[in-house]
Design goal:
Blueprint (H helix, E strand, L loop, with lengths): L2 H9 L6 H13 L4 H14 L3 H12 L14 E6 L7 H11 L3 E6 L9 H5 L11 H11 L1 E5 L6 H12 L6 H15 L3 E8 L8 H17 L3 E8 L7 E2 L1 H12 L6 H16 L6 H13 L2 H12 L18 E6 L4 E6 L1 H11 L15 E4 L6 E2 L4 E7 L5 H11 E4 L9 E4 L2
Amino acid sequence: MLFQDIIAKKRNGEILSKKEISHFVKGAAQGTIPDYQLSALLMAIFLRGMTKEETLTLTLEMAASGEQCDLSAISGVTVDKHSSGGVADTVTLVLAPMLAACGAVVAKMSGRGLGFSGGTIDKLESISGIQLDLPMERFIRQSGEIGLCITGQSASLAPADKVFYALRDATATIESIPLIASSIMSKKLAAGAQCILLDVKCGTGAFMKTKERALELAQTMVEIGKGAGRRMEAVVTDMNAPLGQTIGNSLELIEAIETLKGKRRGRLLELSLLLGSRLLLLAELCRTEQEGKTLMEASIADGTALGKLRAMIAAQDGDVRVLDDYALLPHCRSSFEITADQSGYIGRIQADQLGKASLALGAGRSVKTDTIDYGAGIILHAGLGDFANKGQALATIYTNRTGIEAEAASLVKNAFHFEKIAPAEVPLYYYDSK
């Protein structure tokens, strides 16, 4: 078939057949269709959209374009959680060990951070010696033996998506719901878990800025997952303010460990319990949401959740001593405090401004080839709704870079907005698909 005919068909708003979609996905993965033609088709999809059936077919073809992980040999129910990314979002490192302690098998392939959205793999790479590029056989074996394995995404997973993503980034076709949904879900389906929960962020610190767009994306991905025979659920959660109290790789790892030790509470743990209870229900490992939360709280209290994280780190050749000695993690030579210029209630904390500050400090990447500083970041000392006196510390900044102090300080200081009266409580989530 002539590829220009496929382009023209979608340009005219017509529905592509399964054969046509399969043709262009295979052509992208194999490099037999030129970039300029693929770009033209992506723009046509961006402008004309896709039906539910087209989007499902596109996702399944992308998932089938490379290696697919077969977890069927594992005894137990395999689960996975995907977050669309945010600031101080350390949920995976808290949630995954709790789920494993409650009997779920967490076989998770995670990504690295780009922009001010942190990556789980970067956070774990703060641990000396840890292996996060595991062969598929080792990934499957460890998941079955320990009930928990987190590794980087295989380069052979959904290769067509890598081609499409690079072209979308270069041709201003990123913000297409069918293309975003198929990109995320093709990798989730190829990773093999039976139960998948999607945490779709919305707000200033997220890719999806509005609740409406986040809801549309969440519903589209749930339909795709169910169409592929997976147990699916999605939650649209708030990312107008940082989720945790730390931003930066080793700092967020410490916060996760402290949470699993029962020493930290707050929105990070609250969201982890919410998402975990949904996944335990999907996996039929509890009867009610409250029972799921109780089981996970117990896994913190009796130390089994922390034990699962310890077992995972050891199995992946990491230095488990970091769980008790944070001095073994990367740290920065320089630190300084940001203080309040006025007294009042903290009505808003702009997550995107703090994310940009963390980039300036070296904690994130502007492009994929950037080198990150695992010790750099920010610790927040005040949260939404807190009353702060003039001169009170709002945050501490950590960096090894020089000459960026003024820029980082300005971004952090301007992220805090003060009000005369206490603000209304920010909801943790706006929608769930259960």
